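dumping this here before i forget
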Amino acid sequence: MELVMIGLGKMGLNMTARLLRGGHRVIGYDRAAANVNEAIRIGAEGANSLAEAIGKLNAPRIVWTMIPAGQPTNDTIRTLSETLSRGDIVIDGGNSNYKDSIRHAAMLAEKEIEFIDCGTSGGVWGLQEGYSLMVGGKPEVVEKTRSIFETLAPAADKGWGRVGPYGAGHFVKMVHNGIEYGMMQAYAEGFSVIKAKEEFGLDLAQISHIWQYGSVVRSWLLDLAARALDNDSDLSNIKPWVADSGEGRWTVFESIDLNVPAPVLTLALQMRLASRDEENFTARMLSALRNQFGGHAVKKEE
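structure:
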């Protein structure tokens, strides 16, 4: 099977490499020429423009987009709606909001172009381990592209599946990432409590490896925590500033819209926001209030 891969960042390149390894023909396109050159180096064909990339495919054509959510994806889908033809297929493998994906499907349907939204998990390890793929779209269209998903997944019958209609793939991936926020926060807090018990002289890396076997908290995230602690047991070279890519926020918003309580996921998101507040006026106000009503000491800036 042949396809165009739009967006050749680290994940897009790794997916391209896995597809090539599975015998697929891939034409890579990215605005950054260096990324196109890298795709060529690993065995893909390159293109200097989106039109050139699409022109290298035989109809019906498949285009996989792996670009940032929001306006970049909106613009690309709009361009594809004007470039592709009836029966062509667009697969959005990025982290788009599921509501955007529903709109994109409708936009393409006006031109009789098919659409699949594919929530993709696996990060930088996907090339080696395979990707978890949560797919939304028409069953018959997903079936036409089955070999692509089977190649990208950990196995042909594992780690991927059609979960529902348009938008369902990105919706499930959104919730997946919300869960991830909560799990990561739990590990971070747990190791922080262990580290604070200084009189025991506990070795965080050793404990993480003990937990990897037989423990009910063992997971891939724990494996990654162990790797991080092996490299730097104090994590002294990492700034305590945690980003969020959007899906955690969307999960929290959705829980509110659906009247479903999600306190762990919500607090995990809030903790990420708190990590970025170097000024932390909230903490300053709390300290000032304690001083005002109880005469409690405050620490002054030097």
